[in-house]
Batch of 2 targets.
Target 1
Amino acid sequence: MPVRHPGRWVAIAVIAVLTAMLVHLAVTSSVLHWDVVGQIFTYNTVLAGLGRTMGLTVLAMVIGIVGGILLAVMRLSKNPVLSGASWIYIWVFRGTPVLVQLFFWNFLGALIPQVGIGIPFGPTFASWNYNDLVGLFTAAVLALGLNEAAYFAEIVRAGILSVDEGQAEAASSLGLTHAQTLWRVVLPQAMRVIIPPAGNETISMLKTTSLVSAIALEDLTRAGQDIASRTFYEIPALVGISLWYLLLTSILSVGQYYVERYYARGANRVLPETPWQKVRKNLFSLERAGGTA
Amino acid sequence: MTVEPMVRAEQVHKSYGSVEVLKGIDLQVMPGQVFCLVGPSGSGKSTFLRCINHLEQINAGRLYVDGELVGYREKGGKLHELRDREVAEQRRDIGMVFQRFNLFPHMTALENVVEAPTRVKKVPRAQAREQGMELLTKVGLADKAGNYPSQLSGGQQQRVAIARALAMEPKLMLFDEPTSALDPELVGDVLDVMRGLAQDGMTMIVVTHEMGFAREVGDSLVFMDGGVVVESGHPREVLTNPQHERTRAFLSKVL
């Protein structure tokens, strides 16, 4: 007699009922106009907002990753001033809400009306009005990126610390400088530890960008809100933009898989198969099985 | 004309906090010598080896490689530590082989060997690869050039590590217990490579527990214990006729 799993059957029944209810709701609901969802999905303000959301995500992550690596290296430096500065940066930017920082960068013009190039406390060679220089989009990129750098610094630091000390010793014994050791030997190995949380951060950033709607920047979320308040198609608008977010996070997850695979080289004796390779192999073995049967 | 020693240590002291690991080491290694350092664990032999290429900073005394002060500049009787770039320059000429190989796991065997010549010496890639293949052939691993370290046995990894160090054409090779992490059956291949190097006239300092190797290949042997040199001389002499009680006690356990 095979082992019975009554619990499994109960769970399957519960999930089946819930799924049926959800499908029923999706099909019969009077507020969920699927045709409207489709229109909103490709509406031009939504697409423009989508572009801004993607641009914000990419730029903020670039600042976050570059800044994070810099902060992590500073933090691990033997120089107490550098590591102290990094510690304080992380303390401030991780210790305040990103929404507050977003407002801060947007209103910083009140504190620093003029931004100039020159000698500190000396003559200025060129200067600009802060609000001309830093528009809504730039303020949002700065706020999200500089905040991300604080988090990313800790991820990079964990990655660097995970690499065996013997690696850096071997590199220095060959005559590589600190910088060469970091770039060629330590960071590539740290990537294995850095990538999974970095993927997490990128996906999280994609969704955190929706906060910029609070400073009236027309991102994907704001575009959806505008349609909702203009047409009262609230639910279709929310579903429409949610589908975009879901699509983008799915693409990012696939990207993460391949980046992880790339940095796994050398760590495993055999590289794991890509999903596509698995599919092809399964198809092939099915064919073979069919042929011999 | 007297020959300048390759390594000259004068009253080298090293402490970790309040623990003194090296309590005044004096020794000389002549060019072309195979110099064996033996002693119980904690005797300071590995620490001393690591001081020679400035992986550890000495606290007092003087340490010269090929007549040049290691890791420091002397100015008005005071020692000033060299900058990162200057230390790196000194290390180019000193190869090191580690107990746990420390190959770069994200690079193939050949990439491991080629890395330092191309990055540090700016040797053109094609030329470096050619030389790298020659070195891998020399250590008997030409067919493993494209393998990652995880695909190699411990003995093979250590031989790649030796090739990697040789790629910088060092004038001195430091071996830190190169066979201690290996299965007994793999030790022989690594020792063969080291024997070949000795025959080619390479100056080598070897921290080892392989007394057979020391006896056969070594030109000079130093027994260290508790951070001091207890006894030194020709390996055959020290190993067969130790003068000190501590040397005798140690050798009776390892031989």
Target 2
Amino acid sequence: MSSIASCKEASRLISDSLERPLSFAENLQLTVHLGLCHACTQTQRQFKTLKNIFNHYAKLARQLPPDGKNHLSAEASARIKASLK
Amino acid sequence: MFTSISRRNGQNLTKFFLHPDIIICYSDFQMDNSTTNPEVWVDVHGDSLFCYARGRVRNQDVAENLVQETFLAGLKSQATFSGQSAERTWLIAILKHKIVDHLRQSYREKPVSDLISDEQTIDDFFDQTNHLKKEPRAWSSPPEATLEKTEFWQTIENCLQKLPQRIADAFSLREIENMDTKEICKLLGITPTNLWVMLHRARLQLRECVQINWFENTKGKSNE
């Protein structure tokens, strides 16, 4: 790996940094890259925003489109009721 | 049309203003601690549990079975229900265990890791010079108003559904169920490196999907 990571490598390090502590070398590489690369700075923000969005999604509410597939069907409902007796 | 949603069991949800047809699968703050007779569980909680299960396993039959198993388990362990949480929260917690058990079983039968193809699909998001094909734009951090929009969560849900199932499972276990690396790796039968590659893959696709379908879309822009 060169001292300045490619955007692909940087993106991997950004994602990994949300999962594990980066090594000193990785951290340095990423910091140098982010200092020079506007796109990867945005990627980092977006990955972090995604984390926040899913954190919110997990906590507050799961809302699915009203496509009719989110209701328990009458048959399943009857079957489950019968099984509970 | 925006209206205050009136829940089947009569509780009003005033914080969110949603289309009345939208089901909120699960929400912590909307429930009181009242309990109901198991005979009416299916009517009171059936749709919420099914909706939650289906978002996770995508298969209707499997989701129905998981809901049935949840009610049966609830019936058996009813005596241990402390009433500290709302009844639905308690049932959802059982359902989550059932979903994890289901994933554990299905991944025991078929191996999950395909590191080579994951690396290859990661390459698909980059051009020949290793830059992202879809350039990351500045997202306005979703303000409160966005987080209360049904359309926003529909976009998120749709993007999640577009991920390959095993990638979505890994991502959901990590970011929605908040499981740690060790637990997920054990469950999916993979190494931490496999998992990190899968999560990277998930994030690349999700950020592209959310950028295109929300932030560059009129739905997102009308919000700024």
